[in-house]
Amino acid sequence: MTETASMFRPAADGFGSPRSPEPAIEVSDVSLRFETRDGPVHALSHVQLKVARGEFVSFIGPSGCGKTTLLRAVADLETPTLGDIRVEGMSAEEARLKRRYGYVFQAPALYPWRTVARNIALPLEIMGFAKPEREARVKKGLELVNLGGFGNKFPWQLSGGMQQRASIARALSFDPDILLMDEPFGALDEIVRDMLNQQLLRLWEVTGKTVLFVTHSIPEAVFLSTHIVVMSPRPGRITDIIACNFPRDRQLEIRETPEFLAIANRVRHGLRAGHSYDG
Amino acid sequence: MKSLLPITTVVLAVLAIWYVAAATLNADLQRDAYANAGRTDYSTAELIVDSLNMERPKLPGPHQVASEMVKSIVVISPTSKRSLVYHGLITLEETLIGFAIGAALGIGLAVVIVSVRWLDRSLTPWLIASQTVPIIALAPMIVVILNQFDITGVAPKAAIAAYLSFFPITVGMVKGLRAPDPLQLDLMRTYSASQSQTFLKLRAPMSAPYFFASMKIGAAAALVGAIVAEVTKSEDGGLGARLLAGSYYGQTVQIWAALFAAAALSAVLVGIVGLVGRIAEHRMGFVR
Amino acid sequence: MIDRRLADLVPPFLLGLVFLAAWELVVRAANVPAIILPAPSAIAARFVVSVPTLAADFWQTIKGVLAGYVLGCGSGLVVAILVDRSDFLRRGLLPFGNLVSALPIVGIAPIMVMWFGFDWPSKAAVVVVMTFFPMLVNTVAGLESASSMERDLMKTYAATDWQTLTALRLPAALPFVFNALKVNTTLAMIGAIVAEFFGTPIVGMGFRISTEVGHLGIDMVWATILVAALTGSAFYGLVAAIERRVTFWHASFRRREA
Q1: What is the pLDDT of residue A85?
Q2: Which residue, among C156, C158, C102, A63, has the nearest Cα to B213 in the 3D structure?
Q3: Integer angstrom CA distances of residue B217 from A175, B223, B264, C228
Q4: Touching check for C52 and chain B: CB below 8 Å?
Q5: B42 located within any domain
Q6: Inter-residue contact C188 to C127 (CB < 8 Å)
Q7: Has residue B66 been placed in a domain?
Q8: What pLDDT score does B36 carry?
Q9: Which residues make Cβ contacts (< 8 Å) with residue A159, sequence separation at least 6?
Q10: Is B58 on the interface with C (CB under 8 A)?
Q11: Start-end of H helices in chain B
Q12: Are B45 and B124 within one domain?
């Protein structure tokens, strides 16, 4: 088991851009085991990863491959059994306590008793921003995700896509360096998803944030990322890391280019190789 | 089972608080008793011990209630009017008869309401409103009215137990029989199932969890009804009569013993219904 | 929308009218003696004549109901928030609270009458005990009801326990709290009226019912029951109206805007 993992273990120097002295995120030999009623589950096994600042890294793999667990471990929502995670040179817990990342969940998780504007203001209230500052940031955030004019609506009065956009604005409101996104568009239909993908790309271009993005859609991963991390289950591990160097201002149309399809194919092969059909 | 330790701790804490409260509440009474007996040489320890062993304390200690319960359940013959078993059986009989009648009527009415549209629209709002009305206020009057018809003994109290359990059971069962969602009802429609088939194959099984939940509430309500009815008509005995007698004669230990007997009866009744429900729901595949 | 709600009220209203008419007819036609079942018209007449007595009874009882309700619900809420801090206490108190909620607590009425006297404080005490446990159990369950995702969100903000409580868990618990508040309106009325069966100064709804039953003044009993029913419904309706305003966001109330 360990042999398989080490065979696919990427080179230790990762793929960080050479000019950044310190990676945004550094995962060193992390293993994470859950104890369940049916015995231990090896959610992550000897995972090794470096992400440079300003990268957009997607994690793709079948369910149970540990992609969400890895994201949660970076966010200090799970604690690794072994190994070390550094976020901006700090431990994951320090980084969380210093609010260095914004997290977007699979569901919008907006509080139904708060208006959209007050939902976006929630982290700002908790972090003690003054009221005028809060209002300015909420206004900016609403415009950033094209929700200007919807601030006084309640979340349940909006469509699913709008809700997820509001939750992205909420994650960005306190201007964290890192954005962690766990299948944020998984529940949305294809057309809304395409639109949000483009918006997200633009947002990333404008803000220059480091993004870690979990998905199970190959086109989404290829379209958005600078690097794609392919993962495989039982035990959860990284099997391939694919660079993806499209220009930052790419359009949806690049999905029809041969380069795009070549990368998508490589991801698909990677997924198949790591996929066992006996389970 | 990992809750065993916390529950034990809470129970012990309640007992401790009870002892402290009993000693505090009774101390004045006991001081008066010493004064009447002309005693001044008592120690604090003596005061506490005596406070916890008074004959008519404000609040009897747990051990006094326990020993009274042992005495009136185990020692005294169950045929004696001083036996809690005697009174408990009376209350249990009224409760069970009333509960059976209330449940039968409640389920029957729920079935009718769900099947007959105009009744549903006109009667359901009244049933819901009935939940907000202290219907127990009717209890004394029902006893008297039934008395006019020479209906005495167990019957009037069972009647009150029945009508107190009737309302929550009806409301719960109407909810349960409506539990199938439109999709499931549409499925029966595509089979062109008859109303009775839809009822037997879909509505009735779907209502099982609601059924057992309302049965639990109904059983507890029936017992409260029986006890309150006994308070209004205390000459036939029962735990409620025991409570009333205790309050007339200031027999606090007796009141507490009757109260705990009623609580135990209620816990056992609700527990049995709950257990049956759990087993049935498990067999029917309602996952808990 | 208003029209629709009015239309929903028509069938129950008609049924109520039919029921009252049938009651009146049967009593008159069969000459049912008033000590068994007075006609609705007789009850109405008694009600009108006895307004001062009924009002005095109402005020006496409502004092115990309200004082006990506020104290019982308030302390249940506070204890639930305190208990919530400790997983150990919660695991111990919850089964205990559930058990006590199912017990015939009205039985403590004679004890409370002995401790606090015949006047309304003893009724309030019964109501406190009756309403405390449903509030405790519901609030504890409500504080647990926030989803793990919503909690993780607060964790990613490095929110303090207090911030998580006020910003997430208390608002999420509100539907549960209101559930207890509604159930407790009825329990409070029951507690106060039954406690009055065990002894009161010569005023109060429970006192009126038990004495008039003794004098076979059944029409007065019905008039008092009418007051109790109206009071209970109004109390419940008031709490339900507040609930609608406060937890408008909850799935059971909200209406998607077009």
Answers
A1: 94
A2: C102
A3: 53, 10, 16, 22
A4: no
A5: yes
A6: yes
A7: no
A8: 84
A9: A192
A10: yes
A11: 4-36, 44-51, 62-70, 84-115, 117-130, 139-148, 154-177, 182-190, 195-198, 204-206, 208-232, 239-249, 252-284
A12: no
C235–B137 C-beta distance less than 8 A: no
Same domain? For B42 and B91 the reply is no
A and B touching (3 or more beta-carbon pairs closer than 8 Å): no
Nearest CA in chain B to C37: B145
Give chain A's residues under pLDDT 70: 1-21, 274-279
Quick one: pLDDT at residue A196?
A: 87
User: For the purposes of burial, counting CB atoms within 10 Å of the CB of C17, is it exposed (0-12), middle (13-18) or buried (19 or more)?
Assistant: exposed
Supply the pLDDT for residue A21: 61
Cross-chain residue pair C249–A113, CB shorter than 8 Å: yes
Partners of C12 on chain B (C-beta within 8 Å) are 121-126
Does some domain include residue B65?
no
Touching check for A90 and chain C: CB below 8 Å? no
Between CA A226 and CA A245 the distance in angstroms is 6
Q: Do chains C and A touch (3 or more CB pairs under 8 A)?
A: yes
> What is the architecture of the domain spanning A2-100+190-274?
3-Layer(aba) Sandwich (3.40)
Which is higher by pLDDT, C13 or B152?
C13
The pLDDT of residue B287: 62
CB-CB neighbors (< 8 A) of C36 in chain B: 145, 148-149
Q: Do chains B and C touch (3 or more CB pairs under 8 A)?
A: yes
Strand, coil or helix: what is A243? strand
CATH class of the domain at C49-246: mainly alpha
At B203, list the tokens.
């509505």
- Chain B CA closest to residue C236: B132
Q: Are residues B17 and B128 in the same domain?
A: no
- Using the beta-carbon criterion (under 8 Å), do B247 and C218 form an inter-chain contact? no
Domain span(s) for CATH 3.40.50.300 in chain A: 2-100+190-274
Q: Is the pLDDT of residue B165 over 50?
A: yes
Q: Are residues B154 and B267 in the same domain?
A: yes
CB atoms C249 and A102 under 8 Å: no
Interface A-C: count of C-beta contacts within 8 A: 58
At residue A211, what are phi and psi to the nearest 5 degrees?
A: -120, 130
Reading chain C (258 residues) residue by residue, the pLDDT tens digits are 567 777 888 888 898 999 999 999 999 998 888 888 899 999 999 999 999 999 999 999 999 999 999 999 999 999 999 988 888 888 888 888 887 877 788 888 888 888 888 889 999 999 999 999 999 989 998 998 889 999 999 999 999 999 999 999 999 999 999 999 998 998 899 899 988 888 778 899 999 988 888 888 888 999 999 999 999 999 999 999 999 899 888 877 765 443
Which of residues 73 through 102 in chain C touch A, CB cutoff 8 A?
none
Give me the domain span that covers residue B171. Answer: 84-284
Tokens of C2: 């208003």
Residues of chain C contacting A101 with CB distance shorter than 8 Å: 156
Report the distance separating Cα B112 and Cα A69, nearest Å.
52
